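Q: Sequence in, structure out?
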Amino acid sequence: SYNIIALDKDYKYALVVGKNKKYMWILSRTKTIPDDVKNNYLDLAKKLDLDIDKLVWVNHD
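A: Exactly. Output:
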């Protein structure tokens, strides 16, 4: 199971957390995520005590 923590108004980006705080994803419908969206989601994740240091950033060339 998973929980959608944040979702932009156009459904392009989402912050998703698993059933516990062990898993987290920032999802995008595009190959890149604007810095402001990324930073807002990372700030929110920190406030929720999620470990953002273990995030894996995939480069979609």
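The chain has a mean pLDDT of 93.
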